[in-house]
């Protein structure tokens, strides 16, 4: 099929742009603040997938708006979401540093099998997956440079369905990039299961979120 072959380079570009987009600083800082609580690699992957799913939903909606309204409407509307993302990063960072003083890792034995995992020493329930889904939706509203580039690269596609297909490939790239980050980031914490490493990652992730969120909020970056 000539049309499928013709569209292949756009799909490849879309996947690459998606992987690159997943490593935007605000994405990594938001996700890392929740990955520090992952108990297993599978849990870390689920957390990253929840974020990516929320991000994909917003990406699809923005693409429809781009298709019908181009940049005239979105330039004025989406610019304000950058500040919302900055404020959100500050709140997440503060929360991570606060929780650092309540979570401790304990070692347990079940028969001949010994393992360890973190316990939260307060009454707060963990809803990382739900939180990450909502954060993904919010972050998908801001910083859509790659989507605009993808839209420009896809000008040869005259239908909304074709453009949405490209955004689907972009979203796959986002998922791939974020899963790789989740596995790499959570590995030392899951492997060592030490309070010292957990506290170090919590402090680093929280402080980074606060600093970068402040820079975004006051339009420094």
Which descriptors apply to this entry?
two-stranded antiparallel sheet, 8 helices, 2 strands, globular, disordered N terminus
Count the E strands. 2
Stretches where pLDDT falls below 50 for ≥5 residues?
A: 1-5, 119-124
Radius of gyration: 19 Å
Could you state the order of secondary-structure elements as H and E? HHHHEEHHHH
How would a textbook summarize the main sheet? Answer: 2 strands, antiparallel
Helix content: over 70%
% residues in beta strands: 5-15%
Mean pLDDT across the residues is 78
Basic shape: globular
Number of helices: 8
Tell me the span between the first and last alpha carbons. 45 Å
Strand order of the largest sheet: 1-2
Layout of helices and strands:
Blueprint: H1 2-22, H2 25-35, H3 41-78, H4 81-99, E1 103-110, E2 113-120, H5 128-140, H6 145-153, H7 160-192, H8 195-217
Helix pairs in contact: 1-6, 1-7, 2-4, 2-5, 2-7, 2-8, 3-5, 3-7, 4-8
Summary, kept brief:
This protein has 221 residues and is mainly alpha-helical.
Explain what this protein looks like in three dimensions:
There is one protein chain. The protein is mainly alpha-helical. It is 76% helix and 7% strand. It is built from eight helices and two strands, in the order ααααββαααα. The protein has helices at 2-22, 25-35, 41-78, 81-99, 128-140, 145-153, 160-192, 195-217, and strands spanning 103-110, 113-120. Strands 1-2 form a two-stranded antiparallel sheet. β1 (103-110) and β2 form a beta hairpin. The protein is globular. The termini are far apart. The model is unreliable at 1-5 and 119-124 (pLDDT under 50).
């Amino acid at each position: 099929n000539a049309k499928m072959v013709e569209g292949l380079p756009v799909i490849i570009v879309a996947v690459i742009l998606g992987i690159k987009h997943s490593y935007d600083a605000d994405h990594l800082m938001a996700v890392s603040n929740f990955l520090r609580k992952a108990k297993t690699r599978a849990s870390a992957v689920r957390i990253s997938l929840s974020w990516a799913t929320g991000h994909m939903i917003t990406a699809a909606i923005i693409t429809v708006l781009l298709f019908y309204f181009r940049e005239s409407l979105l330039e004025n509307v989406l610019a304000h979401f950058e500040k919302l993302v900055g404020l959100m990063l500050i709140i997440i960072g503060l929360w991570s540093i606060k929780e650092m003083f309540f979570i401790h890792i304990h070692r347990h034995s079940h028969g001949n099998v010994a393992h360890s995992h973190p316990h939260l020493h307060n009454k707060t329930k963990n809803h990382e997956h739900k939180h990450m889904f909502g954060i993904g939706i919010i972050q998908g509203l801001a910083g859509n440079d790659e989507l605009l580039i993808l839209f420009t690269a896809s000008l040869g596609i005259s239908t909304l369905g074709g453009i949405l297909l490209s955004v689907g490939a972009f979203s796959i790239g986002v998922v791939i990039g974020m899963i790789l980050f989740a596995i790499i980031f959570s590995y030392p914490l899951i492997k060592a299961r030490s309070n010292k490493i957990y506290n170090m990652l919590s402090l680093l992730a929280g402080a980074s979120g606060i600093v970068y969120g402040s820079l975004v909020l006051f339009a420094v970056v």
